[in-house]
Amino acid sequence: MDTLQLLISGLANGCVYGLIALGFVLIYKATEAVNFAQGDFMMLGAFVTIGLTNAGYMGVPFWLAVPISITIMAALGYLLDRFVIRLMFGQSQTAVVILTIALGFVIRFVAGMIWGHEPQSLENPLAGKELRLGELVLGMEDVAVIVVTVLLTWGLYEFFNRTKMGLAMQGASQNQLAAYYMGVPVKRVQGFIWALAGAVACIAGILFAAKGAVDPSTGLMGIKAFAAAVIGGFGSLPGALAGGLIVGVIEPFASRYIAAGYSQVAPYALLLAVLIFRPHGLFSQVRVKKV
After folding, report:
1. How far, in Å, CA of 35 to CA of 226, rounded?
2. What is the dihedral sign for C-alpha 90, 94, 99, 100?
3. Cβ(18)–Cβ(150) under 8 Å?
4. Residue 132, SS3?
5. Following DSSP, what letter does each residue of 211-279 receive, concatenated?
């Protein structure tokens, strides 16, 4: 029973990693850029929701604060693309990576200035509620994390593979000039995908803050989520979720059965093994870029 309890806890944490990894993959699939501030967007989304909901702040009802927060973070993602990323057009991918790393530092500084550096949790209607299945006790926050993540991943997968906009996004990532000549509004597509990544990061932040405490340094979870995206296959939405789940499950078992310190090292040891034996990721589908 302890093993099953550890598994459920690891899956819930892994879903948060998977959602952040989804943000990495979304932007990469559409623009072939890597946004290393994705974890910080998650943290900022959590704090925006806390600022709207918690009694010590604005006290907006939870179910109203959630869509407002998601909209705010989607708008921030769009504005980031519109006024920052587009200015980097023609620059190397390394320049974009450095820019997003610097942006992460700025977001953590601003979050600390506004909300402080003490850990805070999100006041939500699921807090303290449990689901009992025999001797197994599941926190409703964990159940919500797992259900929302699976539904969101499925929805995004269907969107990318069955809608005109999703196919246009993938075409733009393959060859922007060719996509433009075929009538794809490349700039609008990229703005939409950055907005979508911001919304997904906010959802991850809300779920994380509902089940645990968040502070400005929480944004560094993006590094672990990036490892999860690489493990699953950097470019695969289901792979991003699977990589997040693998990382989330490894941590509690490594801490329980090996040593507490190994829980932080184990995901990166797995990442190293995957890069050596399967460089494209465990669940990737290798594709040839058309030029």
Report:
1. 10
2. positive
3. no
4. strand
5. HS-B-GGGGGHHHHHHHHHHHH-TT-HHHHHHHHHHHHHHHHHHHHHT-TTHHHHHHHHHHHHHHHH-T
Instruction: Find where tokens 């890069």 sit.
Output: 275
Task: For the chain, give the number of residues.
Answer: 291
Beta bridge partner(s), residue 139: 130
Give the CB-side neighbour count of residue 46, counting CA atoms within 13 A.
33
Structure tokens at 264: 């932080």
Tell me the per-residue pLDDT of 68-120, one tens digit each, with 9 for 90 and over: 999 999 999 999 999 998 888 777 778 888 999 999 999 999 999 999 999 99
How far, CA to CA in Å, does 289 sit from each of 2, 29, 170, 172, 173? Answer: 47, 12, 11, 11, 9
- Residue 164 backbone dihedrals phi, psi, to 5 degrees: -60, -40
End-to-end CA distance of the chain: 54
Alpha helix (H) ranges present in the chain? 2-31, 38-53, 62-83, 93-115, 140-162, 164-174, 176-181, 186-211, 221-232, 237-257, 262-277
Q: Token match 């490894």: residue? A: 250
- The C-alpha atoms of residue 36 and residue 131 are separated, in whole angstroms, by 36
Residue, of 186 and 113, whose pLDDT is higher: 113
